[in-house]
Design brief:
about 180 residues; mainly alpha; 5 helices; about 0% strand; Di-haem_cyt_TM; heme; Cytochrome b561; membrane; transmembrane helix
C-alpha cells in the first residue's frame, strides 16, 4: 500500500486549510483588533466556528486513521529522524486537540458564546489575553505553527532530497501498485 485512504487524504488537506486559516485569523487579525470593535465579534464568530469544526474533524480523522490501513512509516535512513517523524505526527494531534480545548475554555471562561452568537456584542471582555486559558491557546498556536513549518520542511526534504515521492502518499490515487 502506497497511499492513505482517500477519506483520510481529504481530511488531511481540509484540516490543513482550516488550521492555517484559524491560525492566521487568530494570531494576525483578531489579536490585533480592539475588543470594542464590531468586526472583532464577527471575526471571533468565524474563528470559533472554524475551531469547533477542526475539533470535530480531528475526531473523525483519528477514528478514520485507526480504522483504515495505511502505508508503512516513511523512512529517512536515520533512526533518530524516523522517530522524530512519528512523534511529530502524534504531536500534531495533541496540539490540535489542545488548541480546540483551550479555545473552548477561553470561550466559556469569557462568556463568548452568548456574546458572539447571541448578539450581545457590546459585552466583549476588554482583554481576553489576561485569561490563562487564552494565554495557553496562544502558546499552543505558536507550537503548532512551528510544527507546521517543520512538517513542510520534512515533506520538502523527502520529496526533493530523498526523492522518495513521499507527497503522493497523502494525495488521491490508486492505493496499491
Amino acid at each position: 500500500m502506497h497511499r492513505y485512504h482517500p477519506f483520510l487524504v481529504a481530511l488531511h488537506w481540509l484540516m490543513a486549510v482550516l488550521i492555517l486559516l484559524a491560525l492566521a485569523a487568530g494570531g494576525l487579525v483578531l489579536a490585533n483588533m480592539p475588543s470594542d470593535s464590531a468586526e472583532k465579534v464577527e471575526g471571533l464568530g468565524g474563528h470559533m466556528a472554524v475551531g469547533m469544526a477542526i475539533g470535530l474533524l480531528l475526531l473523525v480523522r483519528l477514528t478514520t486513521r485507526l480504522l483504515t490501513k495505511h502505508p508503512p512509516p516513511a523512512r529517512t535512513g536515520s533512526d533518530l529522524l524516523d522517530r522524530v517523524g512519528t512523534l511529530t505526527h502524534w504531536a500534531f494531534y495533541a496540539l490540535i486537540a489542545g488548541m480546540v480545548l483551550t479555545g473552548l475554555a477561553t470561550a466559556f471562561g469569557a462568556g463568548l458564546f452568548p456574546i458572539v452568537y447571541g448578539g450581545a456584542a457590546d459585552r466583549l471582555p476588554p482583554d481576553l489575553a489576561t485569561l490563562p486559558q487564552r494565554a495557553a491557546h496562544g502558546l499552543i498556536a505558536l507550537a503548532l505553527a512551528t510544527l507546521i513549518g517543520l512538517h513542510v520542511v520534512a515533506a520538502v526534504y523527502h520529496q526533493f532530497f530523498l526523492k522518495d515521492r513521499l507527497l503522493r502518499r497523502m494525495w488521491f490515487g490508486k492505493r496499491t501498485t
